[in-house]
Write a structure and sequence with these properties.
The protein is mainly β and about 150 residues long. The chain has one helix spanning about 1-25, and strands spanning about 40, 45, 50-55, 65-75, 80-85, 90-95, 95-100, 105, 110-115, 125-135, 140-145. The protein has one domain: Immunoglobulin-like (Sandwich). The strands form 3 sheets. A 6-stranded mixed β-sheet has the order 2-3-11-10-5-8, with no helix packed on it. It is rod-shaped and about 105 Å long.
Length: about 150
């Protein structure tokens, strides 16, 4: 009789626990996740129909200095954000390899980003590929600049 009573009690307890578990709703974690940043680049030059920017090199100086930029959206959730810049073209000075783009910058309060490129005149007719990367999220954007 005690065994039957104990079995009955365990069965009722099991049913109550199942009802309580079924009535619980999982917390929606999406409301706590911030949106991922997005990255957009702007060569600040004329753009052709193929999506290539065009930079006219200054033949009177070795380097042509030009600022490129862009924006990072949803940056306010993750400040500060570092942008890593790289390019496919380098030149040599006193035995050292010199990149054609500054290697890093930070997103400004308004979301804008900027860096400077400085190709040299001997790169005329090459295509400079500039890449910006938000390493933390592996977000990468690339622009191509025809050096004329």
């Amino acid at each position: 009789m005690i065994k039957k009573l104990l079995d009955y009690f365990v069965l009722i307890l099991l049913v109550v626990v199942m009802i309580l578990a079924a009535s619980c709703t999982p917390q929606d974690n999406d409301e706590f996740l911030s949106p991922l940043p997005t990255l957009e680049l702007d060569g600040r030059l004329s753009l052709d129909n193929n999506g290539y920017y065009h930079l006219t090199l200054n033949e009177n100086t070795n380097q042509t200095i030009h600022t490129i930029g862009g924006s990072v959206n949803n940056h306010e959730y993750y400040e500060p954000i570092k942008v890593e810049w790289s390019s496919n073209l380098f030149w040599e000075y006193n035995g050292e390899s010199v990149p054609t783009v500054n290697s890093s910058s930070y997103v400004q309060e308004n979301g804008n980003i900027n860096t400077v490129i400085a190709p040299i005149f001997s790169m005329k007719n090459d295509t400079l590929s500039v890449q910006a990367r938000l390493s933390e999220w592996n977000i990468i954007q690339t622009i191509k600049i025809v050096l004329e």
